[in-house]
Amino acid sequence: MRTKWLSGVLAVVTAGAVVGVVPRVAGATVSDPPTSVVESAPAHTIAQVREQFLRHGPDAEVLVAAHRGHWRAAPELSLKAIRSAVKAGAHVVEIDVRRTADGHLVLMHDSTVDRTTDGTGAVSELTLAEVRQLRLKVGLGGSQAPLTDERVPTLAEAMAVVKGRALVNLDKAWEIRDEVYDVLVETDTLDHGIFKGPATLADAQEFLDSDPEILYMHKINDDNVDEIGAFTGRAPQAYEIGFDRLTDPQVQPAALAAVQSHARVWMNTLWYGQAAGYTDESSLRDPAQGWGAVVDRHQADMIQTDNPEQLVSWLASRDREHGGQGEWPSLPKGSVRVQAEDYSLEGKGIGYHDLDDENRGGTAGRQYEGVDICDSNGALVMCYIRGGEWVRYTVEVPKSGNYRASVRLSSPYFPAGRLTITFDDKTVFGPMEATGTTSHSALESQAIAETHFLRKGTHEFEVRMDDAVDQNFNIDYFQFDRVKH
Length: 485
Fold this sequence. Notes:
Layout: E1 2-6, E2 9-13, H1 46-53, E3 63-66, H2 79-87, E4 92-99, E5 105-107, H3 128-132, E6 135-137, E7 147-151, H4 155-162, E8 167-171, H5 177-186, E9 193-197, H6 201-209, E10 215-220, E11 238-241, H7 253-260, E12 264-268, H8 280-285, H9 291-296, E13 302-305, H10 308-318, E14 336-339, E15 352-353, E16 373-376, E17 379-382, E18 390-397, E19 401-411, E20 417-423, E21 427-434, E22 439-454, E23 457-465, E24 474-483
Parallel strand pairs: 3-4, 3-13, 4-8, 8-9, 9-10, 10-11, 11-12, 12-13
Antiparallel strand pairs: 1-2, 4-5, 6-7, 14-24, 15-18, 16-17, 18-23, 19-22, 19-24, 20-21, 20-23
């Protein structure tokens, strides 16, 4: 049995089969749901997060939402990704919900399982037993991404993992909202879920009024700004504001003030076009060009990000009046970073060697020279890298000592390529095998194992792409970290 509020009147309805729990299918072998495990303590409890979420206005604390779990740390939408998002300090974990052919609810962003698993086909045409046999791929998946031992979770399993720890943003779930509601009731997590979707005002109002515990976020874009504040019954607790230009009506001060008067302002900084040019990668280069702008200029008090750890860190650093860390970002003591686009000014044949004279990245950086520099959602990266190319840089080593080199790079290919870094034409870091990151937009740091002694002062180093292997990766920056032991 379960209870549901209908137009303010408590109705009792009979619950059928538990949605999201593994069925016993004749002739099929399926894994049992994972047993309960002791989770590491989150930075906050669900009671604290709910209290924060329901508090709105100019003084509301900015809440962090992790996109598709923490896919940089674990397979997209896996239970491990959800745990990692909570551990990183996210207040909200965003998940995508799909219904299988036999009516069970599982976590999957795409309509098919092709990108993120070792299977093929539409989720809606596969049974739960068939979905449970699939293995999730590393990170964002893709055709070359390695497999992991993680499996596709059911919604019930995901809610069990997050219970008591964080809110959940229920994406791709509006058309199946009643079934999702049932799972949340059955798992005693209705107060954890934030429903949202491409809802009409009437449908959203009806759903909100059906149960006083329902949390709901209404999506606002160019053509429905008039729906802000138009609810006549229960109002949404948040509005998701999407905009691709700063001239859009929904991002003007009056519209945002109207939202703040009774709800939270949710913005997405995942990639270009969701919040104009404000992105995670822009934020990592300069928070004023991303997170800082959406908070201080556009009143966002909830941000969905692919970089929850960094966003949590930046929010802590800016909160100086409450003991914040102050300056951000800060490199480890003794470390130095060199951006890939800041290559030598000595020109072709001396400062760099590129296989053609065109900057195929366009106008992102130094467009009239031959090194290819691209804009990857706000990160300026060296792109279109080919074997035999090389680039020279200057770096100021802050203190004499042993250093380890790392490269922040991205690639959907496994393997992605090979490079070496040579200091002063004699000290060699590498060769380094570049490992795929599952996407050209999924930048991550990869370290070269050995360390070398570098003296304090100005040095030149050369990055050379091995001409004996296929190269297909982008480079954001190089970093040199002093190793004490």
